[in-house]
Design goal:
Layout (H helix, E strand, L loop, with lengths): L6 H9 L1 H17 L5 H31 L18 E6 L6 H7 L4 E6 L9 H9 L19 E7 L8 H14 E12 L3 H7 L9 H10 L2 E9 L3 E8 L2
Helix pairs in contact: 1-3, 2-3, 6-8
Length: 247
C-alpha cells in the first residue's frame, strides 16, 4: 500500500477539521471586530490571532513533513531498534492502523497480530473520535485491560501513535502491564510518540499538551516492570522508546 504525497497532511486536517475551522473563524472575527476596540486590547487580540494562525499553519506543515516527507512510514529505522528480528509480533493501535502491513514486510516470515484498542470512555479527545468516524475499522477491537493474547506469546509489541490516547497515567500503566504479560523474556515494546517538548511546542503550540513527556512514558513503563533499552528520535518531533521485558 503506497502512501500518497499529501496523505498525512490530509488526514491530520480531516481528523482535526472542527478545530481548524473554529480557529479560522475566530481569527477572522477578531480581525473584523477589533477595529472598534481600544488600541491596547486590539493589539493583544491581534497578537493572539496571529499566534493561533501561526500554529495552525505550523502544525499542518510539520505534520506534512513528518508523515509525508520524512522516512518515518517506511519503517526502515525499525530493525535497528530491536535486539533481534521478531518471529511473532503484535501491533496495537487505537483505531487507525497504517503500519501493520509495513511491519509485516519489514520482517518477512514473521507472524503478526493486529489489535484495535479504541475505547471512547478512556480516549476522550475529540480528534480521535472524529478520526474513528472517518476511518473504517480494519482489525478486531479488544479491551486494552485484557489483550487477546497468551502469556509470553510475542517477541515484540508495537505502539505507534496510539498509547497517548489513553489520557490517564493509571490506564497507560495497565496497558503496559498487559504488554509485559504477553512479551517473552527479553521481548521488547517499541513505543512511538510525539513528546511534550520544545520542538513539538513550536510545531503545535498549546496542542503539544496532547502529548506526554519522556519522563511520563518512563514512569509508566517502570511501573509495568519494563526497562528502557533505547531512546531515539525520528525527525525532531517524533520519539522512539524501546522498553524491554525483564526476564
Amino acid at each position: 500500500m503506497t502512501r500518497t504525497t499529501y496523505q498525512g497532511l490530509q488526514q491530520i486536517f480531516n481528523y482535526n477539521r472542527p478545530f481548524y475551522v473554529r480557529t479560522l473563524w475566530g481569527v477572522m472575527a477578531i480581525i473584523i471586530f477589533s477595529a472598534w476596540l481600544p488600541l491596547a486590547l486590539r493589539a493583544l487580540l491581534l497578537a493572539g490571532a496571529g499566534a493561533a494562525l501561526f500554529w495552525t499553519c505550523a502544525s499542518l506543515a510539520v505534520s506534512h513533513y513528518v508523515y509525508d516527507r520524512s522516512a518515518f512510514y517506511t519503517l526502515r529505522w525499525l530493525p535497528a531498534c530491536l535486539s533481534r528480528p521478531p518471529a511473532r509480533w503484535i501491533n496495537i493501535h487505537s483505531g487507525i492502523d497504517e503500519c501493520s502491513h509495513v511491519i509485516s514486510s519489514t520482517f518477512p516470515g514473521s507472524e503478526g497480530q493486529i489489535v484495535d484498542i479504541y475505547d471512547p470512555h478512556e480516549m476522550t479527545e475529540p480528534s480521535i473520535g472524529y478520526a474513528r468516524r472517518l476511518t473504517a475499522a480494519s482489525s478486531p477491537t479488544a479491551d486494552w485491560r485484557t489483550l487477546p493474547a497468551l502469556d509470553q506469546q510475542f517477541d515484540a509489541a508495537f505502539l505507534i501513535f496510539a498509547a497517548h490516547e489513553l489520557r490517564h497515567h493509571a490506564a497507560r500503566v495497565q496497558l503496559f502491564q498487559e504488554i509485559a504479560r504477553i512479551l517473552r523474556p527479553g521481548g521488547e515494546l517499541v513505543l512511538v510518540e510525539h513528546s511534550r517538548d520544545w520542538a513539538n511546542f513550536l510545531a503545535f503550540g498549546p496542542g503539544f499538551l496532547h502529548f506526554f513527556t519522556e519522563r511520563a512514558w518512563r514512569h509508566a513503563a517502570e511501573a509495568a516492570s519494563l526497562s528502557i533499552r533505547m531512546h531515539r528520535t525520528i525527525t525532531p518531533f517524533v520519539h522512539v522508546f524501546v522498553f524491554g521485558r525483564q526476564s
